[in-house]
Design goal:
alpha+beta; 412 residues; 3-stranded antiparallel sheet
Amino acid sequence: MKKLLIFVCCLTTFAACHHHDDDCETTVADRTVLIYMAGENNLNNAKSNLDFIKPDLEQMREGTKTMAANNHLLVYVDGADSKQKPYLLELANGLTVDSVAMEEDTRTSDPETLLNVMRQAMSKCPANEYALVLWGHASGWLIEKDSVASGVWTTPKPAPRKAYGLDTGNNSAGNSGTWMNMPSMARALSMLPKLKFIFADCCHFQCAETAYELRDVTDYIIASPAEIPGEGAPYHTVVPALFEKDTFWQSIVDKYYAQVLHNGYEELYVPLSVVKTSEMQALAQATRTVLNSFAPDLESPYPDMTGLIHYYYHGASHKFYDMNDFILRYASADAYTAWKLALDRAVIYKKMATRWMTNVNWGFNYNDFTVTEEKYGGISMFVPQWYYQNTVNESIKKLGWYYAAGYANVEW
């Protein structure tokens, strides 16, 4: 693979102030991984002792002590400290071996920033493979606030979507700001060599809508369909897994899932899965077929979702439903069996949790459904409902999954 030195000319306004002037070794590495920390928000609130950046960086340094040789870990950090501009770190052997301060305090939620940082990582540390870790807030594909309107990334009237990377824009530890929508992320990443994987250490990322949007820019997506705790992944064990040659996707999930959380009442785990994106087109076609098999016969335009596994976002006002549990309920046995083959080819690995940390009631409010191995699919999907008319039911139409999966055919 080319070393991508052609990107250097695009970075003249982006990098300055090396603590060390040396880039990575001149030999091409096996894999370079960039951890993209979108922390200009309430995840970096030092005043309330809710600063998740500093401990995660310490864990990342610890993890580099045992990561495989001939690999590179870079970390882009955008925090809420008004005295510090975003910076790019190289971590190795338990240490920070290089630090680059950015000339401009650009928004991490801007897809152009993501593109430029990725280009700088690839230029600094050329490798045979590249991967991306998304650290921060996320909300699946959902829409609420305007995403960044810059250059080629949005239409003149940008779709009011939010999905990843809350950035306050004023170096504060707030919870209001701009987000990056999934089509914009996909468009930015499409300008780069295809990634080996995206590991999303943020809430609700593992949904069919997002996986379909990103199917052409990464081979695998490793994420949770549910909320994750503020502390996120245990990076001291996950970092070495990021650089395993062939078993990385299983190891990342296993190391993350081994982290036991407590809410004062019980042990909690993070539900996780791995999606092979090359199978998302086939899963969309299978979903189109199975929806056509039962949706026209529903007693009302929208199915009753009572009792199905769901993953909250900001309470009951928005729910993502487990794909497998939904299709299992409504499809005939034969239709479900055929569809399940496509699901299993797309979701190649998963870990189930019966309860998890949530931003609603911290894990002990899930009394309206039961998670079982038969029901849990490891990936969510949006199912239109009558109370979403003129809101989310319309927003879903801006994503490719809506048409590929046949929602329009059943008049959802």
